[in-house]
Each structure stands twice: as C-alpha cells, then as structure tokens.
User: Fold this.
Amino acid sequence: MQGDDVCAICDDGGFVTCCDGGCLRSFHLTEGHGEGSKCPSLGLTSEQAKMIIGKKAFICKNCKYKQHQCSACGLLGSSDLSSRAEVFKCKDYACGHFYHPKCISELQHPDSKVRASLFEQHVAAGLKFLCHVHKCSACHGDENKDDKDMQFAVCRLCPTTYHRKCLPSDIPFAAKEGPNGYIFQRAWDGILRDQILIYCMKHEIIKEIGIPRRKLIIFPEAKKLFAPKDPESTPKEQDILVEQELLGHPTSEPSETPPPPATVQNQCFRSNPMDSFAPSSLYIDPYPGSCGWLDD
Assistant:
C-alpha cells in the first residue's frame, strides 16, 4: 500500500484510513482512531467511519473535487487537468505533493530567475516533473532505502528532505543542550516506513509542546476556517477560536468528475513502536479539517 504512514492532521499513526485518490494522505476518521495522540480526526461518528471502511475505497474531498493545496505555499487550487488546472502533481506515483507552477519553479531553480520562469511555463503547459522532496537538500542525491545512511528524513510541514547522513546537527533525534542554548528534538525514527520524520529549521518549535504548530488543512467545501486567535502563541485551553475567511478558496466550480475506482484496500493499522510524540495539549481545540467530510 502506498498511503501515508501517519495521519495528515496529527502526524501520528494508529488506525488510519488512506485516501485512494492522488493525495495519498491518511487520516484518523474518528477521535477514537486517533486517541493515542488526542487527534481531533475528521470528526466522523463510528457509524460513518464503518460505512467508509466497508466501501474499501475512501476518497477525500480534495481528491473528489480535484482541489489540492500547494505543498509549498499551502493555498488551495484546482488540480483538474481537463479544466485550467492551477496546481500540478509530482510525477512520482508514490508522491502526493501538488504545486503551483511558480512555486515548484522557485524551489527547483532558486538561483536563476530565467530558468525558474521557463520551468514555470513548462509545468503550466503540462510538463511532468519530479518534485523537491525526492532529492536531498544538502547533497542533492537520491534516496536508497536499503542503505540506512541514505534513507530520507522528510519534513512534515514543507518540501524539505535530507539523507540521514546529511541531517544538520540542529535537527537532532533527542533534545540536548547546545553551545547557544537548548536544542529541541526535531527528528523521529520508527514512525515512517524506511524514513525519518522531521520538522526542519524553517519551523519554530513551540517550547511548551516540543513541536511546531500544525499547518492548516483546507478542504474544498469549507467556507471558513477555524484557527487560534494568535497563531504565534502557545496553544492553551483558554485560546479563543475565531473564524477566518478561507484564503485561496477556489473561484471555479469544483469538478464533479468521479475519481477512478480504487485498486487497493485503503484501510490499514499503523502502530508506532513508541508512544505518541505529539503532546495532547497541541490538539485540544477543533482542528480546521475536522468537519464537512460527508455530503449532505
């Protein structure tokens, strides 16, 4: 099975259901499925979850309506290749990343505006591309899952990847005291299959919880998002939730074209060899992807 090892909402394993669409993400359908990490899940009832599991063909609403978030900027865009697509999927069959042509061109050619502009035009015209996560950010080499040192360490919040041997010293597997102060743990073994889960240095660690604040997950039919009032503050029980207008909401009507039938069973159980690394305090509030998953 090619689906993600951990839930797209909480970055933890357990009983996750894998989307059979192009995104290849996995989710805790109910709060019970994500109990170990206090994941708010997709907010479904047990009955709704059983219905989805029984079909053995779970398609998330991003894939159903062909509206996906860019893995670089996070904005939602149409991925419908038959009707003015705005974001395009990496050509690797096991990769679920989508990008705006401009975003992927700037990642691929950060030092040349001319090359970036040309690449952007080619992607917009339908050029197949291999995205940024399939090369080490340090040595630009490929992954070799059979060689432990050459296994990839993949950031969960942005398209940044390192070989195990290339991991910077400020992305450690355990918290430690450094010459310039305390260094938080940013890398975890044993959570992803043959890979390392990391939060790279682009993302600030919240001291009280030991990991960064999660990025928003945007679903096509959501009119508004819920987010902490002060995104820079540490999540606390007294945080007030405010409604924010959906940035990047698609201007075109979502495609109703049904996705191709699933060919693999999408229900799986991923059990981490360690207790959940995500503190429960991170997920005390409703997550902005926890509703609107079943059609009326």
